[in-house]
Write a structure and sequence with these properties.
It is built from 15 helices and 19 strands. It is α+β, with helices and mostly antiparallel strands and 509 residues long. The longest helix has 26 residues.
Length: 509
């Protein structure tokens, strides 16, 4: 027991020292020559490991971007300052999964615990971004009685439009899609803002609502005992929460199912994230209920779903077809040794590190024999690129799928496949992820040697098994229906309404 106590104390001290060193390094300035070395290092790693680097940008143009960036590096910068200069170049590659990790301050366990007993400053609102404007569309706590539809003009006297223009350059979708940015930017805006301005307890915002300007002072309030107990209750994992993949941070479920009519003829499945967790059980029970009800229509809602597990979407597709199918084409990698560059010990606790060390030989041999060569190219063995049988509970009725600019990655893979196979009618707006696939799968987590900025690089070219559009854009819906900010505020859903009206028309005819 004494040995375990000593190990625990050493681990705690090591953790504190690591946090302190990280924050000191984040505040230090790096000489221009070393910043240029980081740029060259990043480009070399991309050329070495990224299987489709010049998909959306010619090699000559990308090299020009890297060279132009290096010419601007003529004074020392902190890692964060360097990030804001370098990330727009990475975003210019137009690969939505490819991004430098923003260097952020780390907090000790004591600091984190203190923050857990306080409410958010900006996170208690929900936002909508259009062009260079930001609006509050939900104010659940009725803070200062700010009304939905209120535009935020400035934060601490800095115009919000300046921030939006700056942060927009950090985000790219796959290819030349334009619908993804507003969705992703509204979710990441205050991550960028906090990284730049720190985690403060107070902020002054200038607003505009129905022609009237108003200034509010927001404060980070302490949680009441009731709030703390509610947080604890939300974190408890009941069977229902597991099945529907409950997310305590947003007090919502990743998966949900219901019938939209009294006769149970219209089934509705909402998937916010293909997390895979308990997904097999969810789809098994859900499609059993749909079959028992003899439903004629199924609506699958993947709006604002940034993607996730290929395994889950392959399983979901098996419930939507009556014949064997192949979800994706063989996934290309740049070399046979690439699967061994995935940072096996990443984010391991001392105990996890010990167990992983024991299992490493098995992992090594599995990865070493996970590739094969065909026609001079190297591919990674994947279950999803093999034929899959339809599930015995498969739905045979009419399928509608709701999509928007927030439908990304795996959401785009499955919707592109459904559209290609003419198995569903897609309604909404163009997806944020590409129609013809993306580069992701698993990552090699690189770290730039001088700035120590983390740079995960996707290693697999993942493409749906379809006839490619070569559009370099997202999955285009069969029926385009836009949703306005006022629709969201009024809790109207014109995209779902279109489907319900179409079903009503079909029933009459």
């Amino acid at each position: 027991m004494k040995n375990y106590s000593a190990i625990f104390i050493l681990a705690m001290l090591s953790s504190c020292a690591s946090i302190r060193r990280h924050n000191e390094q984040r505040a230090s300035c790096i000489p221009p020559d070393q910043l240029k070395e980081d740029v060259d290092y990043a480009y070399a790693k991309l050329q070495q490991m990224h299987p489709q680097l010049y998909w959306y940008i010619p090699k000559q143009e990308l090299e020009h971007k890297f060279d132009s960036l290096k010419q601007t590096l003529n004074e020392p910068l902190t890692p964060l300052q360097f990030y804001f200069k370098f990330q727009p170049v990475i975003a210019g590659i137009r690969e939505g999964h490819l991004s430098l990790r923003m260097p952020r301050k780390k907090f000790t366990k004591k600091e984190i615990k203190k923050l857990e007993h306080k409410k958010g400053l900006f996170s208690r609102f929900e936002y909508y971004i259009s062009n260079d404007q930001m609006y509050i569309i939900q104010n659940n706590d009725f803070i200062e009685n700010i009304q939905p539809g209120t535009e935020i003009l400035s934060i601490n006297n800095v115009p919000v439009s300046d921030y939006i223009k700056k942060y927009r350059s950090l985000i790219s979708s796959d290819g030349y899609n334009t619908t993804f940015q507003p969705y992703f930017l509204k979710d990441l805006f205050f991550n960028y803002y906090t990284a730049e301005n720190g985690l403060s307890d107070k902020a002054t915002i200038e607003t505009l609502y129905k022609g009237d300007k108003h200034t509010y002072i927001l404060n980070r309030e302490s949680k009441s005992d009731t709030d703390v107990e509610k947080d604890k209750e939300m974190k408890k994992r009941t069977e229902d929460k597991k099945l529907n993949d409950y997310v305590a941070a947003s007090n919502s479920y990743n998966r949900s199912f219901k019938f939209l009519d009294k006769d149970s003829t219209i089934a509705y499945i909402k998937v916010k994230s293909f997390s895979r967790e308990y997904s097999e059980e969810f789809y098994k029970k859900t499609f059993s209920k749909i079959k028992s009800a003899k439903a004629s229509y199924l609506i699958i809602d993947v709006r604002n779903n940034y993607g996730g597990s290929l395994y889950e979407i392959n399983n979901l597709y098996s419930y939507l077809t009556d014949k064997p199918f192949t979800l994706i084409k063989p996934s290309q990698v740049t070399s046979r040794d690439v699967p061994l560059r995935t940072n096996y010990f990443r984010k391991s606790t001392p105990l996890e590190f010990a167990f992983k060390s024991i299992a490493y030989p098995s992992y090594f041999f599995a990865q070493a024999f996970s590739t094969y060569t065909k026609d001079g190219k190297v591919f990674y063995k994947m279950k999803a690129d093999k034929p899959t049988k339809p599930n015995k509970e498969a739905f045979n009725g009419k399928v509608f799928v709701l999509i928007n600019g927030g439908s990304f990655s795996a959401s785009s893979i499955i919707t592109a496949k459904l559209k290609n196979d003419k198995r569903a009618t897609l309604v909404g707006e163009e997806t944020g992820g590409a129609n013809d696939g993306t580069v992701a799968g698993f990552y090699s987590y690189q770290k730039l040697p001088n700035s120590e900025i983390k740079f995960p690089i996707g290693l697999l070219l993942v493409q749906p098994d379809i006839n490619f559009s070569d559009s370099k854009k997202g999955v285009v819906p069969d029926v385009v229906v836009h949703e306005s900010m006022q629709d969201i505020i009024d809790r109207k859903d014109p995209q779902l309404d279109w489907i319900m009206n179409e079903i009503s028309r079909e029933k009459i005819n």
